[in-house]
Structures are given as C-alpha cells and as structure tokens.
Design a protein that fits this description.
By secondary structure, the protein is mostly helical. It has helices at residues 30-49, 56-76, 94-108, 124-147, 154-174, and strands at residues 16-18, 24-26, 118-119, 182-183. Helix 2 packs antiparallel against helix 5. It is found in: Cytoplasm. Its EC number is 2.5.1.17.
Length: 190
C-alpha cells in the first residue's frame, strides 16, 4: 500500500531520483525518461477522459489503462537486476496485454474498415486519444532503447506496443464509430 504523507523530500535537489529498488539515478537517465513518459501518457489519457464520460464502455477501458500505466511505471522503476529483493516488485503481466487485445477487437469490430490514414482530430475525445497514442509511442521508443542497455520485461514492451494500437482504435471509436474520422488525402495541397 502506498502512503504519501510528505510530498517533498529534498533528496532530488541534486538532480537525482530514487528507483523503487533503491538506487539513485540522474533525472535525465533513460530509465527515468521512460517511466516519466509513461506517466505523461497516463496524463494524456486522463485529458481524453474529460471527453469520454458519455461513452461508459470506452471510459471504463481508459480507466483500466490508467491503472495499468501506473503498474507499468512501477515495473520500469524497479529494474530486474537478478538480485533478490525484500519485496515482490510489481510487473506488467501478459493478461493485461490480452485484455487490451480483446478490447481492441471489440471496438474495432464496430468500425468500418479504413481506406486511408486518419488525421488526428474530429471530436475532442478523438483528438486527445490521438495525442495519448503519440505519447505512448514515444514511451515505447524510450523503453525499446532502454531494453538495449538494461533489462526491460518483454511483457512491458508488448503492453506499451499494444496500448498505442488500442488508443488508435479508441480514437476512431470516439469519432462516432469512425464516421467522423478526418482522413488523409495524399497530395491534397500540392
């Protein structure tokens, strides 16, 4: 259980932050960048949810994703170094990705097939979901780069990859089931 009585500790005043597992890292460290961008993704999903309250099914999915994103941040903040820990670190599990895949399939089954790329926009919910998708992609790029240097679980990488797919389908769903999608017209302004 998390207990936050004091918000500031002053321990980061030197430009470092503590990982869940204890060691301190520079605030510009790639691992910190990765879980910070996961946090940013969570914030953009929260913004999108300001516009999905009338779409109960989608809003519930986004609520679950916000919780998953905290799990993902916790996973990244406790790197698996192979050392025995005094606690069981929180890890993303395959079931979370499977749930996302099932939700993607459920939403996508109600959309017309795409015949063009979609431009971010349409409804406010859709525009915010597209923003969340691009931030999730940035988090994924950072996580992949980190995985080339340090341990990052395959389940975490799979989850963040699937998340951007979900957010794309969710953005279309929020655009009146794709009917209000803004389609790219190649070379339109030549």
């Amino acid at each position: 259980m998390v207990k936050l009585n004091k918000i500031y500790t002053r321990t980061g005043d030197d430009g470092t932050t503590g990982l869940v597992s204890g060691p301190r890292r520079q605030k510009h460290d790639l691992r910190v960048e990765a879980y910070g961008t996961v946090d940013e993704t969570n914030s953009t999903v929260g913004l999108a949810r300001l516009h999905t309250s009338d779409m109960a099914e989608l809003d519930a999915m986004l609520s679950r994703i916000q919780n998953d994103l905290f799990d993902l941040g916790a996973d990244l903040a406790a790197p698996d170094t192979g050392e025995k820990l005094d606690y069981e670190p929180l890890r993303i599990v395959e079931a979370q990705t499977t749930r996302l895949e099932n939700e993607i399939d459920a939403l996508n089954a109600r959309l017309d097939p795409l015949r063009s790329f979609v431009l971010p926009g349409g409804s406010p919910a859709s525009a915010h979901l597209h923003l969340a998708r691009t931030v999730a992609r940035r988090a994924e790029r950072l996580m992949v780069e980190l995985s080339r240097r340090e341990a990052v679980s395959g389940a975490a990488l799979k989850y963040v990859n699937r998340l951007s797919d979900f957010l794309f389908v969710a953005a279309r769903f929020a655009n009146d089931g794709g009917k209000a999608d803004v389609l790219w017209v190649p070379g339109k302004n030549r």
